[in-house]
Design brief:
It contains 11 helices and 5 strands; from the N terminus they run E-E-H-H-E-H-H-H-H-H-H-E-E-H-H-H. It is mainly alpha-helical. It has 3 domains: 54 residues, no CATH class; 95 residues; 122 residues, no CATH class. The strands form 2 sheets. Strands 1-2-3 form a 3-stranded mixed β-sheet. A two-stranded antiparallel sheet has the order 4-5. Helix 4 packs antiparallel against helix 5, helix 5 packs across helix 7 and helix 10 runs antiparallel to helix 11. The radius of gyration is 24 Å and the shape is globular.
């Protein structure tokens, strides 16, 4: 049976062979206008192709972990939007708060209680309400972080890949919730390409031409890996191991942003290798 919807894992115990296809691979086979008949025909045609790539079916546990990450992602986005609104409103009154969530936490309450500025009583009341909303979002995010850490502490696979520099509990649990069975990827490069961390091609006439990263696949997981790589770059100057020396040389040649993407690509391939082979991470000597 060929499905394009979620909940496909419920049909496997009934004896069905379930295969999930990404909609972007089905769309080229659609003929005529969009309706159920043409969609079903396109799915059947796409599934018959020998080179078709299928999506791994997630277990209930993976869906639970992914739900935590999706909720946390939404809360972080709301907190960022709220912080920008607070900074923008106060800037209109000449009260400037530097960028960074930490500055909002440390300065906002002092600004509301301080009477040296020219904020009206109404403005102080509004800002105080925004601060309470900010604290509520902060608490919700911390609760999600605690849930992620509980999942991380019970997963042997998460703990193995968290040994990689730039990979922590959040990235480890997000990867395990996303990748599923490693057999869907032939090698680490396919997993990196799935995350959009490999160069985009525009080749013709046997002449290869590579562009920037493709940015395809799971943008949330790609963002986490790049940010994890960026955290490694903050302390790379304090280390002298082979990997750090490689990052320093690459940063000199290509710049900090491309170096972070290169490290994220490398970490993605390493993660696939550890999950596929069941091995522990070993640092380069």
């Amino acid at each position: 049976m060929l499905l394009q919807t979620t909940g496909a894992e419920n049909l496997s115990p009934s004896g069905h062979t379930v295969k999930l296809i990404s909609p972007q691979y089905v769309k080229p086979f659609t003929q005529g206008q969009k309706n159920d008949r043409n969609d079903a025909q396109a799915i059947a045609e796409a599934a018959s192709r020998p080179s078709m790539r299928f999506v791994s079916i997630k277990t209930v546990e993976q869906q639970d972990i992914q739900s935590i990450h999706r909720i946390r992602q939404r809360l972080v986005a709301q907190r960022t939007a709220l912080s920008n609104q607070i900074r923008g409103l106060l800037a209109e009154y000449g009260v400037v708060i530097p960028q960074s969530i930490s500055h909002i936490r440390s300065r906002l309450l002092a600004i509301v209680d301080n009477t040296s500025h020219e904020l009206t009583a109404l403005t102080c009341e509004l800002v105080s309400e925004l601060y309470e909303e900010f604290k509520y979002l902060d608490q919700r995010i911390k609760k999600c972080d605690r849930q992620i850490k509980r999942v991380f502490s019970k997963s042997e696979a998460c703990q193995r890949i968290a040994q990689i520099e730039g990979v922590g509990p959040i990235i480890a649990t997000a990867v395990v919730a996303t990748i599923g069975d490693t057999k869907y990827f032939k090698n680490g490069r396919q997993f990196a390409a799935f995350l959009g961390l490999t160069p985009r091609q525009h080749s013709s006439g046997g002449k290869p031409f590579l562009l920037g990263i493709s940015k395809r696949g799971d943008c949330y997981l790609r963002m986490l890996l790049v940010h994890g790589a960026r955290s490694v770059m903050y302390v790379v100057d304090k280390k002298n191991d082979p990997k750090s020396e490689w990052l320093k040389r690459l940063r000199t040649r290509r710049g900090i942003n491309k170096t972070c993407v290169a490290l994220a690509n490398k970490n993605a391939r390493t993660i696939w290798a550890l999950l596929a082979k069941g091995e522990n991470y070993q640092k380069a000597a």
